[in-house]
Specification:
Elements: E1 14-16, E2 19-23, E3 32-36, E4 41-43, H1 47-63, H2 70-80, H3 88-96, H4 107-123, H5 128-146, H6 150-167, H7 174-188, H8 196-210, H9 212-219, H10 225-248, H11 256-263, H12 267-283, H13 289-297
Antiparallel strand pairs: 1-4, 2-3
Helix pairs in contact: 1-2, 1-5, 1-12, 2-12, 4-5, 4-6, 5-6, 6-7, 6-8, 7-8, 8-10, 9-10, 10-11, 12-13
Length: 298
């Protein structure tokens, strides 16, 4: 536990410091807690971890060129899960409208990226298996840049298993894939069972699998099909997550559903355009501004 001097330490960095060491509570994943009493001496990471940090911090800095509006605060969170630039009033507004999940990378982002890379590879006549391998490799790089938190890990593992299932002709088993994915992650890291991010991610996916199709059919009886699908997706996720969300905040705004419906069409575009801007901004900075502007408008 430290102060602002530790805020600039990134994944893969090493540092030395001093302080008071105390035992953690029984069942805690941490062996002990160090309350520091001096400024750290930091050794920066190298290789892929350093490259991932450069992409992350560089994109956050370039997003600030969009001005003082919400886009500069939202874009790093929506694309790379970096919410450090979001002002308090914007964070509060996202909570009040039930859109907080958009300010962090989730399974949806992984799905959009996986599908986009696979479809582009197939358009370029890359063989099916090779296209899937490329998509999974890009997804692994994406996870490294955004940081492997619980919901991203769940989405990445499920996306990889799902890709293998589709290639082997077993694509219509999403419930089994979710169970297999959750089992793999919980065996690898049992403490995920107490992570709200992981629990909500699994609940939302289960809602889409079990409730989504039924809600689409039911709503399709009196709504146009595209609107029925657009409504059923956030509604299914909201219903499945509500028992957990109520533990985090004691109120569930009734307008979160229409807010999510309004935001849904533009989120894939922001994700893909934003990721392209991340890479272009590192390789050829002037070329990323149109993409940055477009994603910011979204």
């Amino acid at each position: 536990i430290g102060g602002e001097a530790y805020a600039g330490i990134h994944l893969g960095d090493s540092f030395s410091t001093a302080g008071t060491l105390s035992a953690s509570k029984p069942g805690d994943r941490n062996a002990a807690v160090l309350r520091v009493s001096q400024t750290p001496a930091v050794g920066s990471a190298g290789g892929l971890l350093a490259f991932a940090t450069d992409l992350r911090t560089g994109f956050a800095a370039r997003a600030m060129t969009l001005g003082d509006g919400d886009a500069a605060g939202l874009l790093p969170g929506m694309v790379l899960g970096d919410r450090s630039a979001a002002p308090e009033d914007l964070t509060k507004a996202m909570q009040d409208t039930g859109l907080t999940h958009l300010t962090a990378v989730s399974g949806a982002n992984c799905s959009y990226l996986l599908a986009f890379v696979f479809l582009v590879s197939r358009f370029l006549r890359v063989p099916r298996a090779a296209a899937a391998a490329v998509a999974v490799m890009v997804l692994a790089g994406f996870v490294l840049v955004v940081r492997p938190d619980a919901s991203v890990l769940r989405a990445a593992v499920m996306g990889s298993i799902g890709t293998a299932a589709v290639l082997t002709g077993r694509g219509k088993v999403p419930a089994a894939l979710l169970c297999l994915c959750a089992t793999i992650l919980l065996v690898a890291d049992p403490w995920l069972s107490g992570s709200y991010a992981f629990i909500l991610s699994v609940c939302a996916t289960a809602g889409l699998i079990f409730l989504g199709p039924r809600l689409t059919v039911g709503l399709g009886r009196f709504l146009p099909q595209p609107l029925a699908v657009l409504t059923s997706v956030p509604l299914a996720a909201q219903v499945a997550c509500s028992p957990v969300l109520i533990l985090l905040q004691p109120n569930l705004p009734a307008y979160s559903l229409p807010a999510n419906i309004a935001a849904a069409p533009v989120v894939p575009f922001v994700t893909i355009a934003g990721m392209a801007a991340v890479l272009l901004g590192h390789l050829a900075p002037p070329l990323d501004f149109p993409l940055l502007l477009s994603a910011g408008a979204g």
